[in-house]
Structure formats: C-alpha cells, structure tokens
Design brief:
The structure holds 2 protein chains of 2 kinds.
Chain A: H1 2-35, H2 52-59, H3 61-92, H4 99-107, H5 114-125, H6 131-137, H7 154-180, H8 183-191, H9 196-204, H10 209-225, H11 228-233, H12 245-255, H13 259-289
Helix pairs in contact in A: 1-13, 2-13, 3-7, 3-10, 4-7, 5-7, 7-10, 8-9, 10-13, 12-13
Chain B: H1 14-46, H2 50-55, H3 68-75, H4 87-117, H5 123-135, H6 139-151, H7 158-181, H8 186-194, H9 199-210, H10 212-228, H11 231-236, H12 244-253, H13 261-294
Helix pairs in contact in B: 1-13, 3-13, 4-7, 4-10, 4-12, 5-7, 7-10, 10-13, 12-13
Classes of the chains: A mainly alpha, B mainly alpha.
Chain lengths: 290, 297
C-alpha cells in the first residue's frame, strides 16, 4: 500500500488540477457550445435546435457593430502598439544612461487595471472639461475633440487608451529580444563599417521574428478579451457604437437575459482566439518535444 | 548590451553625433510625457476642488490643495445605493486576492514540479490541456460558472470569487513553475530518490529553496491579475462583495448627482495603488512575469 502510494504520489498530486481543468475549462466550453445550439432565453434549455442562435447573432446589427469593431480596434491596436513598442525599444537600446527609469515610466500602465485606465482617459477625453476645454483655454477657440461622444470616432478612444496601456509591454518584449541577438554578429557588422540603421533592418530585426509572433499573439489575445476598458471608457456607447464581442456577450448574459445569444457570441469569440492561438501553441509544444 | 558607441568613426562629425544624441533624449522625453500625462492629470485633479476643475484646465496644478476628494472617495462616495466610498470594496479585494494568490501559487508549484521532474505518461497531455486553458476567453465559461457557483452555494460570495480566481489562475502558475523547474537537471531528483527521499521531501528540501525568484514572479503576476480583474468581479459578486474595480466603475458611471471628477480620480488612484506599489518595488519581477507569460520555452 505505502509502495503504491509512493509510486503514484505525482499522479495523485496532479489529479485534482486535472479534474478541475477538465470540468471548469473543457466541460464548461462544452456546456456553452451545447447551449449555443438551443433556444435558451432567460434560463438554459437543453433541446438542441440547430444553429438558430448563430443566425440570430449574425443578423443582429448590434453584433455586426461589435464584430467589426473588434477588427478595427484589434488591427489598429496591434499594429500601432507593435510599431511604437519597436521604436521605443530601439531608442532605448542606444546606451541610454537613464534607461532603467525610462523603462519604468513606459511600462507602468501595464500594472494598472483597465478600469483605472478607462477612468483616467474618460476624464481626459471628455469634451466639456477635458483636453478640448484645455486647448480652447489656450486660445484655440474652435478646437474640437469630441471622439468620446462621437459614434463614428469613439472606438478610436479605446484604441488610444489600449495602446497607452500596453505599448510599454511590447517595448519590454522587444528590448529583451534586441538584447538576445548574438553580439558577435553585431560587432562584426560594425567593424565592417555597416551603418547602425542597416544593422537593425538587416540583422537585428529579422532575427527577432519569434518575438514579433509572441507580441502579436499576446496583443490579439488582449484585443479579443477587451471588456473592462470599453465598460469604463465608453460603456459600449454612444448607443452601442463601441460594443465589442466581449461587451455584447456580457450584455446578453447579464442584462438582456438572452443566454442563447450570450453562449453563441462567446463561442464565436473562442473560435477567433483559437484560430490565432492554436497553431502557435501547437508549434511551440512540438518544437519543445523534438 | 548592443553597444553602438563602439562603431568606427564614419563621415559623421562630432557635432552631428551630439545633435543626434540630443534628438534621441528629446524623443524619449516626449514619450515619457505621453505615458506620465494621465497619471499626472489624475493626481492633480484629485487634489482640486470641483469649483477649480470647472474653471481651470486639465494640466494646471491645483491652486489650493484639498484632500476632500480623497476623503469622499475612501469613505463616502456612492456605488449605487450604498454610499460608503471604496473602503469596504478595497478590503473585499484584499480578502479575495490574498488567499487566491496563495493557493494558486502553491498548487501551481506542485503541478509544475510534477510536470517538469516526475514525467509519466500523460503528464505532457495534462500540461498541453492546461496551457490551452490559459488562452480561452473567459466569456466562454461565464455562464456555466455562474450556475456552478449557484449550485455550490457560493454565488455572490467572496469564497466564490476566490475559487474562480484559483481555478483560472492555475494554468499560468503551473506554466511558470514548470518552465522554471524544467531547467533544473533531473539528475538531482534521481540522486535524491536513490538516497531515499520521497516526493514531498525532494520538493520541500531541494526545489522550494531554489524557487524564490519564480515564487516572487508568480505571486506578483497573480496578484496583479486578481486585483485588476473586473470580468469575474462584476459577474460573480453582489452588492456587498464587489471588488474594488467594480466599485470604482460604479462610482464613475453612477448617473445620480453632479459628476465629481476629483472623487473619481482619487478613487481610481486608490484602486491602482496596490499594484502600482508592487510594480515600483518589484518591477524587475513584474516584467519577468509578463515576458514569461508570453515567451514560452
């Protein structure tokens, strides 16, 4: 008995986590997938009824806005955060004496809750007393900056706040990447008299391809899960102009009492995440086992 | 270090180099202003009176420093029908974060130890399943979790939130410890086994003493995640058990009364202080957690 216990201790230690993951991750995904195929409203029902929730979803103008917002927001957020992060990391890589302090300043927003970020930017961007009023106070009487309350522009305020929050993190990723490039090659290039910018574009940046990939994965993951920032900054408004799939799902689940819609929108979100993440994780795990 | 100063002298003159250097510092400084501006505005606004906010501008320093907004935010601001400020909710967050961080770190350490050092058939599958679990959008578990918490009698309670945070934190804590323990040679475990040490003995006397850095990284990561969480907090709490992020959002977006921006800002700073403090004192570990969470292997 004690011998059996001794041999199987590792498995026994892992067992509770294994069961938990099976139930609370995979079981729950299965439950949501199941319910997304039913006519559930306020309460879940379990008779499968085909893809009715998905056709309702894609016919809904609100979901249409939310889903296309995800791509507008996601694209701008990822591209700008990457460009900004790369620029900052290269600037910081030039033997800056105060690098530590500057890095701390660039990265601190990452420690904040999205709710705090949203609250701060909501105040800065509010047209009545914020940036607009301040610039007008400087004498530019006709200056308007009403993105926060303009349905066509409000989504870009979320882009700005999200970039402010996450670009420092991209910088940290790239900086670690720049430092891990083989220094011998760089030295050799410099000895050959190749200009610094060429060293970056021809040697350093191409060798950081894996870092670009991880940054892309993390940022797209952040974009799809963005929920708190929208809630705090615009509440999804004006109207539902800044809804994202995450806020749509929440509204259906907890205020509209439409569980079927909530489940099907959650499933679509998961599919979007998985088309990005699964190939990445698969190749990561493969390369590790080889 | 990519040491560019060793570059051989090219045609560029010395003055040109100095100008370039100044341009570099100027750009870094401008970016620093961009990142600091919101924090600066939050702090100055929180010390202004409402009167001054209405008449002054965003970036001016307060003419008269007042702590009224801070007092209101801490103990009087209304979060819905309750008007007790963020104080009770701040303590809710503490009560949620401490046990959740502790339990998920401990279990993650044991899991990582098994996966990295006691390989058996299926251990890799387990790890892969956990890893995928890190990436799911939590919306996909929200509905069944709400029902499950109801069935367990934990709906709307602090233990319920602790439970949720432990479960969905396990993936990352396991990942952190697994990646750390994988770099420790397995000969160490084998030698200890030959000497008659058991599973827990090896963990306790060999692995734990080596683990301080990864424990710090994991604790900071988990604390930041859980303290800053909003989705679980808003979905699984009720009036008395909300975490501070939910309370902050309720204060800011309450529609009743005059908009008190100074109180909003003070409340936001209070909600941000614990994680900012951790970041300032242990930034190195914070960054390590961030990059470990994204660059695996």
């Amino acid at each position: 008995m004690t011998k059996w216990l001794e041999e199987n201790t590792p498995k026994l230690v892992l067992a509770p986590s294994f069961v938990i993951v099976l139930i609370f991750v995979y079981g729950f995904i299965a439950w949501t997938a199941w319910v997304s195929l039913t006519r559930s409203r306020l309460l879940p029902r379990y008779e499968i009824d085909g893809f009715i929730q998905y056709s309702r979803l894609f016919e809904s103008p609100r979901w249409d806005t939310a889903f296309s917002n995800l791509f507008v927001f996601g694209f701008l957020f990822i591209v700008i955060a990457m460009i900004l992060g790369l620029t900052l990391s290269i600037l910081l890589d030039q033997n800056i004496r105060t690098e530590g302090a500057i890095r701390t300043i660039y990265l601190y927003p990452m420690a904040l809750s999205m709710i705090v970020t949203g609250t701060a930017w909501k105040w800065i961007l509010n047209p009545g007393l914020g940036l607009e009023a301040t610039v007008r106070g400087w004498g530019f009487e006709n200056f308007t900056f009403d993105w926060l309350v303009n349905p066509d522009m409000a989504i870009y305020t979320i882009v700005v706040a999200a970039i402010w929050q996450s670009s420092g993190f991209v910088m940290a990723l790239f900086l670690a990447g720049l430092r891990s490039v083989d220094q011998e090659i760089i030295k050799a290039a410099q000895v050959d008299g190749i200009p610094t910018w060429r060293v970056y574009t021809a040697i350093i940046i191409p060798s950081m391809a894996p870092i670009f990939l991880s940054a892309f994965i993390v940022l797209s993951h952040l974009a799809i899960k963005s929920f708190d920032l929208v809630i705090a900054l615009t509440g999804g408004g004006p109207g539902y102009a800044t809804d994202l799939p995450a806020t749509y799902m929440y509204a259906m689940a907890f205020s509209r009492g439409d569980i079927g819609q909530a489940a099907s929108s959650a499933m679509v979100m998961m599919m979007v995440v998985f088309t990005i993440v699964v190939p990445y994780l698969y190749s990561e795990l493969r390369s590790k086992n080889d | 270090m990519t040491d560019m100063s060793y570059a051989p002298e090219t045609s560029r003159s010395n003055t040109g180099k100095i100008a370039l250097r100044w341009g570099l510092y100027l750009m870094l400084g401008l970016f620093a202003l961009f990142y600091l501006m919101p924090l600066f505005v939050m702090i100055t606004t929180s010390f202004k009176s409402l009167e001054e906010i209405r008449t002054g501008d965003l970036i001016s320093l307060p003419r008269e420093v007042t702590f009224d907004a801070w007092r209101t935010a801490w103990s009087q601001a209304c979060t819905g029908i309750q008007c007790e400020g963020v104080r009770p909710f701040f303590w809710n967050s503490v009560l949620i974060a401490i046990p959740a961080v502790f339990i998920s770190t401990l279990v993650g350490a044991l899991n990582g130890y098994v996966v990295a050092q006691w390989r058996f058939r299926g251990a890799n599958l387990f790890f892969a399943l956990m890893l995928f679990g890190c990436f799911i959008p939590f919306q996909v578990v929200l509905l069944p979790m709400a029902r499950m918490l109801g069935l367990m009698g934990l709906a709307g309670t602090i233990p319920g939130l602790i439970y949720v945070h432990v479960i969905y934190g396990l993936g990352f804590t396991t990942l952190f410890f697994r990646n750390y323990y994988v770099s420790i040679p397995s000969e160490l475990t084998k030698a200890a086994k030959v000497d008659g040490a058991g599973f827990f003995r090896i963990f306790w006397s060999i692995f734990l003493p080596l683990s301080l850095p990864i424990i710090v990284v994991t604790i900071i990561w988990q604390f930041t995640q859980i303290w800053n969480d909003f989705l679980f907090g808003v979905s699984f709490s009720q009036a008395g058990t909300q975490p501070v992020t939910v309370a902050l959002n309720n204060i800011v977006n309450s529609t009743t009364g005059v908009k008190a921006y100074n109180v909003d800002m003070a409340a936001a700073i209070i909600a941000a202080l614990p994680t900012l403090f951790v970041y300032v004192v242990a930034g190195k570990y914070f960054v390590r957690g961030l990059t470990a969470g994204s660059v695996k292997g």
